[in-house]
Design a protein that fits this description.
- The chain is an alpha/beta fold.
- The chain has eight helices and 13 strands.
- Helix 1 packs across helix 8 and helix 7 (222-233) packs across helix 8.
């Protein structure tokens, strides 16, 4: 029918063997993911990784400095894979375990936190979707966030605030390890200058960019693709946005 077309090419040297409507322009649809993942591989390298970090804000007190008088802040890096092992296994996804951060806090000797666990998602803007959906989540795209968790899901539904779900998960992990926490969760916005001169208590590194690209392309994962696009738009002093990421992807495509 008119919606169909085919083009068969012999790379061994015989050239085009068959074509039908081969020159008709068509919407690329999910083939666009190839441009996104190629640009990500070029910028970050196949062995590159995103790093979600946790910082202590306040003072360490007590004989063993086991009391943090202040807050913990989990800072997102635009990682699409941060979550729990059960969610990743159920959906056949690569995983950045949020539990790595809880273990790091415990290993740092913190046994009690007087304040709250706060989420910093400011590497991205807070538009949860893309232009075609009015920048809202849709049936084809769960909510985007600079600090995402379980691909933007919570309790079998879309999360209203994915960054707070990540903070809650860290808080639960800490409590399981016997770390007492005075307050709940909230948001934070740590200045980049402060982050650059501060050492995190711990870092959860994502699977390699090559692994994230494979998880994006082969099953055609819209969420991973849009997260990578926004991450490509993030740079020093600039939040990751769909618009900035798209421009970078276009520039890369033209360059090759």
């Amino acid at each position: 029918g008119g919606a169909s077309g085919a083009w068969v090419y012999d790379t061994g040297g015989d050239g085009t063997l068959f074509s039908s409507s081969a020159t008709k322009r068509r919407i690329l649809a999910s083939n666009e993911k190839l441009f996104t993942t190629a640009a990500a591989l070029d910028r970050f390298g196949p062995d590159g990784r995103f790093e979600t970090a946790v910082y202590a804000r306040g003072s360490r007190q007590g004989a063993d400095r086991g009391v943090l008088k202040g807050n913990l802040v989990i800072v997102g890096d635009g990682d699409p894979a941060l979550g729990t092992g059960s969610f990743a296994r159920r959906n056949n996804l690569p995983l950045t375990p949020v539990g790595d951060l809880a273990r790091a806090v415990e290993a740092a000797g913190i046994r009690r936190i007087t304040g709250t666990v706060r989420a910093d998602d400011t590497i991205f803007d807070r538009k949860r979707g893309v232009g075609a959906t009015g920048f809202r989540p849709s049936s084809d795209l769960s909510p985007l966030s600079g600090l995402s968790f379980n691909s933007g899901h919570a309790g079998g539904h879309y999360a209203g605030s994915p960054e707070l779900e990540a903070a809650r998960a860290l808080r639960r992990g800490l409590k399981k390890r016997g770390v007492r926490i005075g307050g709940g969760v909230g948001r934070s916005n740590l200045k980049r200058k402060l982050l650059n001169r501060s050492e995190p208590l711990g870092v959860a590194a994502s699977p390699s960019i090559a692994s994230l690209a494979e998880a994006t392309n082969e099953p055609s994962n819209n969420f991973f693709a849009e997260m990578l696009a926004k991450r490509l738009g993030a740079r020093k002093g600039k939040k990751g946005t769909t618009k900035r990421g798209t421009k970078r992807i276009q520039r890369f495509a033209k360059s090759v």
